[in-house]
Amino acid sequence: MKKGIDVSSYQGRPDWEKVKESGVEFAILRIMTSKRKDSSFEHNYTGCGKNGIARGVYRYSYALTVSEAQKEARDVVNVLEGRELEMGVWLDLEWSRQRNLGSRRVKEIANAWMKVIRDHGYECNIYCNLDWYRNICSGLDAVYWIARYPSADNGTIKESLRPNVGEVGWQYSSKGKVPGISGNVDMDVWYGSGDDKKPEDTAVEKPSALKEPIKVGDIVTFSGRMHYNSSYAGAKGLSCTPGKAKVTAISKGKPHPYHIVHTEKKCTVYGWVDEKYVRK
Length: 280
Description:
This protein has helices at about 15-20, 40-50, 65-80, 95-100, 105-120, 130-135, 200, and strands at about 1-5, 25-30, 55-60, 90, 125-130, 145, 170-175, 185-190, 220, 225-230, 235-240, 245-250, 260, 270-275, 280. By secondary structure, it is an alpha/beta fold. Helix 3 (about 65-80) runs parallel beside helix 5 (about 105-120).
């Protein structure tokens, strides 16, 4: 289990060295407001990187149509500009006007949003509270980061409130205190994926012996016949045809660490793949 936080411009400009020294291992950063880049995003992205804190990003969605969802997601991609994310992109679903659309339409919006992000080589999954998960957006082709706080939230974790719906992460408080940050901050723990799955579902393949490291942008030979919608264990697999492909993203330490896109007609791979099938 990893200790983390999520932050936005509401936390100002954190001292990320102090945050790291306090034991924080990851941070999920707001990348955009409803209209523009979060004013603290660049400071937070750089500060986390310098201090070895794993980074993800989130955006609160105001999309009421598929086209609005696609635009929101494209804006996220444009801000990222291909930069590395260790924790992926998170679609924040909690707006009451979206909820009023009903589960089916919310899922259409979410799928369109995630597809844009994934098509650009990033992992993309869902943040929501437990009520939204149970009544609106469970069953999507995604993993979930779930919010659930105690009624008397004082910043400490109450294990009895863990959602236990197969979530990869739990936002357990909005009133945490962390050295290096003024005021309250959202507190999270991360279980990774597959905690509630069978051992064979979570097994990570041993790294293959490569003569030189594979980098984003490399053209590689893919010899497998399965690609995945996420680098996480338990991700949905789809069959594909092997061949030449370009590496568009790398998620180190994950079961399916390379995101590759075919570069020749006979090859159909377009997703996350196992390391043992990738060669330069």
